[in-house]
Amino acid sequence: MVEAIWTTTDRDGQTLVHLIDQRELPSREIELLCRTHREMADAIREMVVRGAPAIGISAAFGIALGAQEETAPTEGLAFSNHMESVAVTLGQTRPTAVNLFWAIERMRPVWQKAANLPPAERARVLFTEAQAIKDDDIERNRRIGSHGQALLPQKATVLTHCNAGALATGGYGTALGVIRGAVEAGKNISVYADETRPYLQGARLTAYELTSDGIPTTLITDSMAAMVMAQGRIDAVIVGADRIAANGDTANKVGTYGLSVLAREHGIPFYIAAPFSTIDPRTSTGQMIPIEERSAREVTHQGERRMAPEGVSVYNPAFDVTPARNITAIITERGVFSPDELSAYLSGSGRAAS
């Protein structure tokens, strides 16, 4: 299984963070090396690494890189102020993925507690915590896979959108984790993968992961989803999430909302698979979720080739919001919740986690 984020140590004892450059997949497997928090911020912003859990993990390692930099002050208060600046830089990269902010908040008390330690020791403490976030994410994904696979029949064809696999997480995946969990449970699973315009995460990344795992996968353009549903080819739709509001409204890669409408029309269950770190209880509804807009070039060009006329206006939101009413269930590491059950659970009045 592909690994998107890992670390090594150089001859001077400095920790280096490696990322698979997902912009180059599947044609080339290229590593990008991050030595500073600004390099990590650039990698997140430019989609070298993407997917909400992976963005959070990368931000955690970016915090640790900030502590290791030569410019990091040695005094406790000055160090804490430096780390707050590092956190601001990382926090300005991708506004929709709540895991980014969750990871920064998890790292904050760690750097505050380590502020008066010797520089090498405080960096070690922060890299240890970042690695723990990654390891914890993989374990959460496996639990998501275990809970989610139970929802699928012995033989099923799943439609997915964008990439919510090992490349988008610490490893294993959320939506693809459910698929992997079902295969590991001995079920006969095949997948239809939306290409996911304009960045083609489904064509480039999901198809890459699933075919590498030997899972039967059929690639379709986004506009074909209605037809394959109408033909009875799809038993379930499973996607990931970048932020889930307290009422269950979910932001995911643009195009997800349309799939939910189609699934509802055709009586097909529509599942969200995400760790609890993707749930934002401070955001009451999907209308409050900030939606990132990206460069027009992603729409007008394919690589270096222009696909649209000069001067045309472009609207390129990276995400849309699927209303809770269109979601059959939200699959988490704590169990499977309907949107209403999730809302009640977050308020303290719902069922205990499984």
Labels describing this entry:
single chain; 354 residues; alpha/beta; Four Helix Bundle (Hemerythrin (Met), subunit A); Rossmann fold; 7-stranded mixed β-sheet; 4-stranded mixed β-sheet; 16 strands; globular
Describe the protein's topology.
Elements: E1 5-9, E2 15-20, E3 31-34, H1 37-45, H2 52-68, H3 76-91, H4 98-113, H5 119-149, E4 155-160, H6 175-184, E5 188-194, H7 201-212, E6 217-220, H8 225-230, E7 236-239, E8 243-245, E9 250-253, H9 256-265, E10 270-273, E11 279-280, H10 297-300, E12 301-302, E13 305-306, E14 319-322, E15 329-332, E16 335-337, H11 339-347
Parallel strand pairs: 4-5, 4-7, 5-6, 7-10, 8-11, 10-15
Antiparallel strand pairs: 1-2, 2-3, 8-9, 9-14, 12-13, 15-16
Helix pairs in contact: 1-2, 1-3, 2-3, 2-4, 2-5, 3-4, 4-5, 5-6
Number of helices: 11
Do you know the CATH topology of the largest domain? Rossmann fold
Question: How many E strands?
Answer: 16
Give the neighbour order of strands across the main sheet.
Answer: 6-5-4-7-10-15-16
Morphology: globular
Structural class based on helices, strands and sheet pairing: alpha/beta
Going by CATH, the architecture of the largest domain would be: 3-Layer(aba) Sandwich
- CATH class annotation of the largest domain: Alpha Beta
Amino- and carboxy-terminal Cα gap: 28 Å
Task: Report the radius of gyration as a whole number of Å.
Answer: 20 Å
What is the number of domains?
Answer: 2
Q: What kind of sheet is the major sheet?
A: 7 strands, mixed
Low-confidence stretches: none
Elements, N to C (H/E): EEEHHHHHEHEHEHEEEHEEHEEEEEH
Mean pLDDT over the full residue set: 95
CATH level-4 homologous superfamily of the largest domain: Translation initiation factor eif-2b, domain 2
Q: Which bin fits the share of residues in helices?
A: 25-40%
